[in-house]
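debug: dumping io for the single-chain case to check the tokenizer round-trip. Nothing else runs in this session.
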Amino acid sequence: MDVKEQIDSYIGEQLPSKREELQTLHQMMLRIAPGCKLWYLDGRNADGKVVSNPNIGYGSLSKISAGGETREFYQTGLSANTSGISVYIMGLDNKKYLIEAYGQRLGKAKITGYCVKFRSLNDIDLDVIEEMVTNHMSAGSARGS
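debug: decoded output
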């Protein structure tokens, strides 16, 4: 199964309301960054053990691990979780950037150094998510420096 099929399957496996919201976000990501590299991570480590929720990734950046190795990873990601949906903005140098730049306008969401987590699209301002993703995808990991 190719990445697009894995993504479609993952979205299709969600409950109807979450499926619709993930599909809305997925289409938004593809509109913002047409032709970007797509990722699907099933949440399993190299040993096959589940270590995270499955997630969809968009774009590409170089990420340096704690051990100093450089590896490719996605710029922006989506994931369904038990309480809603998470949007990941990877590669930010300033871990307060998201809350400072978007927190006041976003709506009801939990914001960490690289993640925006919310229950439903009804709880947030989707235009702010679109602005956040557009800014990050166009500027890459330099955003939030």
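debug: round-trip ok. Residues 141-145 have pLDDT under 50 and may be disordered.
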